[in-house]
């Protein structure tokens, strides 16, 4: 490892290099200089509070637990009275320390249909743990150290149409199981998934597999370079004819790329009843298969610039390859309310792992699926490397935090442990007046196929041809993958003017839980590319 006086200077050089990527769109704002921990895992709750946590064996964090709570879980066997999880209130920016006992390092999570955070796995004491956190004023973590049948470290979770969560893989686990457990014996079974063994190479490159619920209710799973469509109910592969993703690049941990299910368009009023919308996957970034081994030896290989789109519902699916303006490994991909994709965080060289990334990518990139256009955004001043996170929040901004490529809390390394959180404002927040939803008349509890009428005020002149409604599922973000991320463009009947600037858009709730698993979603009205503030809606 380089000497400290050398690496600090190197970090400055990398920052100056990245600031050379000129862009003027979008803007950044520091939200909190320190939340006391590094936001390795992040989840937005339906009460507009954000749960963040790192790991319990990092040593002392910078935020203390209440005096009556003290846990003996630190790496050096000293009494640790610091918190390793916090709740951030987005309304007043206050941070509340939370108590987590089991090690959450490299774990996974989902929002249950009732809005409870259901979180599983980790390392050491947390490898079989299932943790829950309910969105209430003074709630704290509850933990079941035997909530999983087998240890799951670097696994992926996905909410299912029946409200259960499937936990897929993990280091040395080529299988899956369901949580939370009930009294049924079947809930305590582990089901083999040979695909995970088949996609493992010399350095794994298949951890945190990308899991996306397809519109037919089956699970699309991508690992390393390959993918399948999987019937998890009957434990069988439905499709294995998806081609290998081109480019010779590994896309999963530690050669970490990112993945999203592009917005599901639920059609027009003239669409046939019961029609299943197409589902398309978009994967970007990653690194050469040997990048991890090379980085350990001191050579940091360039990350990938390539992206690929795959229509997983097509009869003859083919990858359509595209290229980002910047190489990116350990980046995050987020669906914005407009249907665009934001690529953010990460590095130009190296791989995921302690001390193994170089040249931070400070510029987000905006991708427009309709045109295939990439646009460079205004850079941040803060490197967000390994163990950084990003999520969409209700006001349409993106909350960014974390970055700790070190084996403990360390503030003197090339890329020090980062305790701050900031927000990125996409260009639509400076493009004119936003539509404003009438919350007093908004129905917040809906059923499948139900007609919905949404009143909104829009002060922007012009017609209403480019008005639509989106529903966005809040994701659990860690290690460059936003689990359960999903966007629906609702079927629209009409937009009608009531008085002056006040309009009502008539649309329909999704048809089935295969398309929209039960739970909480942020609802947005989008007009001419500008979204309203998101309003919480629950579908069941």
Topology, pairings included?
Blueprint: H1 4-19, E1 27-32, E2 41-44, E3 49-53, E4 85-89, E5 95-98, E6 108-111, E7 117-120, E8 130-133, E9 142-144, E10 156-159, E11 165-168, E12 175-179, E13 191-192, H2 194-198, E14 210-213, E15 219-223, E16 226-231, E17 236-239, E18 258-261, E19 264-265, E20 280-284, H3 291-296, E21 306-311, E22 319-323, E23 332-335, E24 341-344, E25 347-350, E26 357-360, E27 365-368, E28 373-376, E29 388-392, E30 398-402, E31 421-425, E32 436-437, E33 445-446, E34 451-457, E35 467-473, E36 476-478, E37 481-483, E38 486-489, E39 491-499, E40 502-508, E41 519-527, E42 530-531, E43 535-539
Parallel strand pairs: 19-38, 33-43
Antiparallel strand pairs: 1-31, 2-3, 2-36, 3-4, 4-5, 6-7, 7-8, 8-9, 10-11, 11-12, 12-13, 14-15, 15-16, 16-17, 18-20, 20-21, 21-22, 23-24, 24-27, 25-26, 27-28, 29-30, 30-31, 32-34, 34-40, 35-38, 35-41, 36-37, 39-40, 41-42, 41-43
Write a structural description.
It is a single chain. The protein is mainly beta and 540 residues long. Helix content is 5%, strand content 36%. Strands 19, 33, 35, 38, 41, 42 and 43 form a seven-stranded mixed β-sheet that branches. Strands 5-4-3-2-36-37 form a six-stranded antiparallel β-sheet, with no helix packed on it. The protein has a four-stranded antiparallel β-sheet with strand order 1-31-30-29, with no helix packed on it. The longest helix has 16 residues, at 4-19. The protein is globular and about 65 Å long.
